[in-house]
Design brief:
alpha+beta; C8orf32 fold; 5-stranded antiparallel sheet; two-stranded parallel ribbon; 10 helices; 7 strands; 11% strand
Length: 237
């Protein structure tokens, strides 16, 4: 097992692993010497910069908006609409450096800043477009980090669902349920598997599948695909 894979395994096999730590280890195949701590400290600094605004907010909606304003207005984080399938959009370290990414990595930035500030925020495994929900008193406020942190009312969520799935889709509670940290990291890796598969990059596909197998050890389909890909890559060497 290579060092990057070992580090990933050490983190995600814990019962309650740190989401930022696991996400920052994705992409180690391209950056084997990259340290995680400077990026976690960057998230600390972002949270510190908006802490007073969040503390002074009168309610949950304003706390959520304060974080959005910091990330998407002041710091300029944005969705990468020009090169959506660039693998770097799925590497949290690159997203922090470049301030551009895809829905799930921008959501992870939001979630990790919110966590540091004591704001209850959860990832939402929405079909085709990852979202964030923030607790606001007795309800949830749904946000689209890829869309600059805009809030989404139920009609907006249904319209987005019909855009990402089928024109007659109906919004069900399961579509807006909270995603676990394991599900978030798994979806990040599945996104990368699609990108590398589309590009015919078997070696990088293998890197991704090895991590998915560690993350989901009981998933027989992943185990089967990994065995087949390992055999294929070994046959090329």
């Amino acid at each position: 097992m290579d060092l990057g894979l070992t580090r990933f395994s050490e983190v995600v096999t814990r019962d309650d692993f740190a989401l930022d730590h696991a996400a920052l280890l994705i992409g180690a195949w391209d950056h084997p010497g990259r340290r995680v701590e400077p990026y976690r400290e960057q998230l600390d600094a972002i949270a510190d910069s908006v802490a007073d605004d969040v503390a002074g907010a009168p309610d949950g909606i304003e706390r959520a908006r304060a974080i959005s304003a910091c990330l998407f207005e002041r710091l300029g984080f944005r969705g990468n609409v020009d090169d959506y399938y660039d693998p770097r959009n799925s590497f949290l370290a690159d997203v922090l450096e470049r301030r551009t990414g895809i829905p799930i990595t921008l959501s992870v930035v939001y979630l990790e800043v919110a966590r540091r500030l004591g704001v209850l925020a959860q990832g939402v495994n929405f079909p085709g477009h990852f979202l964030v929900r923030v607790a606001i008193e007795d309800a949830w406020l749904f946000l689209d980090p890829f869309g600059g942190g805009r809030s989404l009312a139920p009609p907006d969520l249904e319209a987005l669902l019909r855009k990402t799935t089928t024109p007659d889709a109906v919004l069900e509670p399961s579509a807006v349920a909270a995603a676990s940290k394991r599900q978030i990291v798994s979806r990040m890796l599945v996104n990368l598997a699609g990108i590398y598969g589309r590009n015919g990059d078997l070696v990088r596909s293998l890197d991704v599948l090895e991590r998915l197998a560690i993350l989901e050890p009981s998933n027989s389909r992943i185990a089967r695909d990994l065995a087949q890909l390992r055999s294929h890559v070994d046959g090329l060497n």
